[in-house]
Amino acid sequence: MMRTIQSQSGVTLIELLVSIVIVSVAASAIIGVLAMTTQSSADPMIRHQAAAIAEAYLQEILLKPITDPDGVDGEAGRANFDDLDDYDGLADAAARDQFGNLIAGLGAYSVAVSVNASSALPSVPLADAVRVDVTVSRGADINFTLSGYRTRF
User: Fold this and answer.
1) Residue 100 in contact with residue 123, Cβ under 8 Å?
2) 135 or 42, which is more confident?
3) What value does the mean pLDDT take over residues 121-146?
4) 115: Cβ–Cβ under 8 A, 6 or more apart, which residues?
5) For residue 1, is it within any domain?
6) CB 85 within 8 A of CB 152
7) In this structure, is residue 96 part of a structural domain?
8) What is the reported pTM?
9) Residue 132 and residue 147: Cα distance in Å, rounded?
10) Residue in 111, 60, 59 with CA at minimum distance from that of residue 82
């Protein structure tokens, strides 16, 4: 008499449960990474916009002379600013153009300007060098400062 050995193919309930747990842990890790990536994917664009706003303000300000051309200090309204000192303390609750008009889509960005005499340039007398700091903020996440120097020469 001859006996035949039959092999069973299949998985046990324990093996099935272990494989389900392993797959679910791996899937949850992947989904977590995707969620974190998606959540912060807009940050580079927001930072770039803040940098572009700060650069535009800084360029506008640095093109103005250090000394007041008409002798009147503290002109009213940004459209009338004619020297660097007029911009000191400028605080816009939203990004604006050089005439003071709101820029569409950039209302969430606030801008603050500081203009001070600078001693960072050793070969230039203190009275002849000015440092301009433009800080652009958007909520608690973005606080970007761009600085530039202007000399009387």
Assistant:
1) no
2) 135
3) 85
4) 61, 84, 85, 87, 88, 130, 131, 132, 133
5) no
6) no
7) yes
8) 0.68
9) 6
10) 60
